[in-house]
């Protein structure tokens, strides 16, 4: 593949990573926790879409319509039952809780769905295989473009929500100073639950697109968590649009690596992440707030 | 009218109480007894005990990081794998196997020292995933090295010259030696001034720093110690099983086991990881055949402990008595007052 | 009509008891000045009343209703607002957004964005400025305006003039005067004794977590208050302690 084409494909891959990352970024910005079960929740969403699509013979895109609200509610409930309690325990508890949850979830899916690798690509027709030939070397895949467009829409939507709506204001206030927010009437538990709900829903969306774009199985979660985290760190903790940039840089790193040798693809992404970490930007990683 | 207050009570500070004196003596006796195991028990038991001791090492190391330093690492498998592969590498270059194990462990410590500036700039969840990424990176680098077996794995030839019972006995003794060494190192660290500082860091890093606690060097020390211990655990696992595969020796399930052991045993206590390792070993022995259900159970139990029993099993046993088996804390005693209330 | 009453309230910081069985009450339209040295427990008392700090025991009633079991954000919904010590504005948000956050869930009442900007005209040109870039006086005005946006029955203001230049303090008190003239119910923590006594109808002095003086400002002299402030008069004051019920 030509280098230019590799970069172009990387940009589209970045769109998918940005979609995975925005939920992680939101939860971190508002609650200061990294949800270690984020990737597994995305895979759960993918399985939900699979079930709906295969039983009703609908296109996976239509299957998303019932799945997304369900995942939204699931996220809300997840927070109110488990995560809210863990937040009271200090910094370590949410990490340990979400890690335990990740293990339980992964293996529960393994038990229910078997370790078979699946893909939803076949159910979507030409959109997942077709592409525009721009030049002899460069092509623009329909699906890649769609995913990038969805990522931009979702990020834009979140940004708009944060900036212009009452809920968004409440979220930003709680992210900056939860105690004072409570003193002006903002209920932190509801805000956190809402953020978790949005994070789980966007993760499910990302999971569904992953399933359409390539393959998935019950143990795909951790890999996606890692990519999402790398996208967030490369783009700058706490910045939503930065997450898109970070995702794209990661995507390009991976496709360029793959261009040299398919075995180098994921490694290239890790090395770029470590390089960013080692750089000056890396030194400012301790702080983070939802910079809308 | 002015009330006169009584003269302030005289407080004294002691390092050990009766329980910890009993506890440390028993542990010493137990330690000596453990050295006699290979003479007494069958090879199968020796191998199992070696596994138990390896779990113990891992639990103690993870607890050192998270319980004392507030560092939740999900990437210690980097050093487990590095210790194992380092041993292979050294034996391939003619170094005797048991020496290679020791050198590989030191090598892991050096790796930890080298990587720490990168990874210690992260906090909390970012640190957790960052260490994971580091582990994945090292895994991928080793996967690419055909000389070390690539994806299919590699076996440790250097131990073939020993007859099986001798090999198992030597491996067991080396593991026991490492376990004792690490426990002694950690004990010394906690008894020293640094010990109180470490616990202060765990509880509130900023407050500790504002009191002049040098947070950076202490975390570095813990991270290097954990690198050493986990490297040893990996090398000893290799000696115990003779064959390793990259995806399993560098797998994140090691972190899952460590987290489980420490959470269930008691985070931040000296005795906790010992109990946790014992419990985990027993559970592993009984239930590992259940496959996915076993892991679901592990995950859910870890969540339950994190949320409801943050002090773990040891904390549960300890709630009334405030017993410490080993004299690592400080006791405030007021003459004439029941010294149970600490 | 009692707007707020506190009975035998106890609050702790770990092992330290910061508020020891404090009882006081404020009637509608009254202005109460809460004075005392640093560490006397004034901030802890206000925070405990507002729900930002847990009460170890005691009762808190707002317009007769027991709110001690409610979390802070629900007390705001009941009509209690605290302007915290140090202002605590949402620095990354603009002045207007700070006001809107409070207004989004507010009770109904006369205070909305235009009304609040009217009462604090200095904030009009600052609407779209980020709160972290404001001066001390502007921040204090914003913080009070923000609390007003919730349409509180009772407004608690912690450390009105702390860290502010005298000119800024004057401006803040001008706005407060208008509020008071309107019939607002206030508890003010104020270091400047003179201002406190001038603006308030009653004064409560705290020392080491207890109320050591509670009287209408018309009936006490500054010397009496100062003596209570420093604990000099404790022995003789047992007849005036806990006078109100």
Q: Classify the beta-strand content of chain C into a percent band.
A: 25-35%
What's the CATH topology label of chain C?
Rossmann fold
Compute the average pLDDT of chain B: 83
- CATH homologous superfamily grouping of chain C: P-loop containing nucleotide triphosphate hydrolases
Radius of gyration of chain C over all CA atoms, rounded: 17 Å
Helix content of chain C: 25-40%
Largest sheet of chain B: 2 strands, antiparallel
* Number of H- or I-type helical stretches of chain B: 15
What is the tally of beta strands of chain B? 4
The CATH class of chain B turns out to be Mainly Alpha
Assign the structural class of chain B, choosing from mainly alpha, mainly beta, alpha/beta, alpha+beta, or little secondary structure. mainly alpha
- Low-pLDDT regions of chain C: 237-245
Under CATH, the topology of chain B can be stated as ABC transporter involved in vitamin B12 uptake, BtuC
Task: Describe how the helices and strands are arranged.
The complex is a heterotrimer of chains A (292), B (342) and C (245).
Chain A (H helix, E strand, L loop, with lengths): L2 H29 L6 H19 L3 H28 L4 H22 L17 E3 L5 E3 H23 L1 H11 L1 H6 L4 H26 L7 H15 L4 H21 L4 H14 L14
Antiparallel strand pairs in A: 1-2
Helix pairs in contact in A: 1-5, 1-8, 1-9, 1-10, 2-3, 2-4, 2-8, 2-9, 3-4, 3-8, 5-6, 6-8, 9-10, 9-11, 10-11
Chain B lengths: L11 E3 L3 H18 L1 H4 L2 H27 L7 H16 L4 H23 L4 H21 L9 E2 L8 H28 L1 H11 L1 H6 L4 H27 L1 E2 L1 H4 L3 H13 L6 H16 L4 H17 L3 H7 L12 E3 L9
Antiparallel strand pairs in B: 1-4, 2-3
Helix pairs in contact in B: 3-7, 3-8, 3-10, 3-12, 3-13, 4-5, 4-6, 4-10, 5-10, 7-8, 7-10, 12-13, 12-14, 12-15
Chain C lengths: L1 E12 L2 E12 L3 E6 L5 H9 L6 E6 L2 E2 L5 H7 L1 E4 L11 H10 L8 H7 L16 H13 L5 E4 L8 H16 L3 E5 L3 H7 L2 E6 L2 E7 L5 H9 L15
Parallel strand pairs in C: 3-8, 3-9, 6-7, 7-8
Antiparallel strand pairs in C: 1-2, 1-4, 4-5, 9-10
Helix pairs in contact in C: 3-5, 5-6
Description of the molecule:
- The complex is a heterotrimer of chains A (292), B (342) and C (245).
- With 292 residues, chain A is mainly α.
- Chain A has one domain.
- Chain A has helices at 3-31, 38-56, 60-87, 92-113, 142-164, 166-176, 178-183, 188-213, 221-235, 240-260, 265-278, and strands at 131-133, 139-141.
- In chain A, strands 1-2 form a two-stranded antiparallel sheet.
- The longest helix of chain A is centred in the N-terminal third of the chain and has 29 residues, at 3-31.
- Chain A is globular.
- The relative contact order of chain A is 0.22.
- The model of chain A is unreliable at 286-292 (pLDDT under 50).
- Chain B has 342 residues and is an all-alpha fold.
- Chain B has a two-stranded antiparallel sheet. Chain B has a two-stranded antiparallel ribbon with strand order 2-3.
- Chain B is globular and about 70 Å long.
- Chain C is of the alpha/beta class and 245 residues long.
- Chain C has a single domain (2-239), classed as Rossmann fold, CATH 3.40.50.
- In chain C, the strands form two sheets. Chain C has a six-stranded mixed beta sheet with strand order 6-7-8-3-9-10, sandwiched between helices.
- In chain C, helix 3 packs parallel to helix 5 and helix 5 (136-148) runs parallel beside helix 6 (166-181).
- Residues 237-245 of chain C have low confidence and may be disordered.
- The chains are: A mainly alpha (292), B mainly alpha (342), C alpha/beta (245).
- The interface between A and B is large, with 48 and 43 residues.
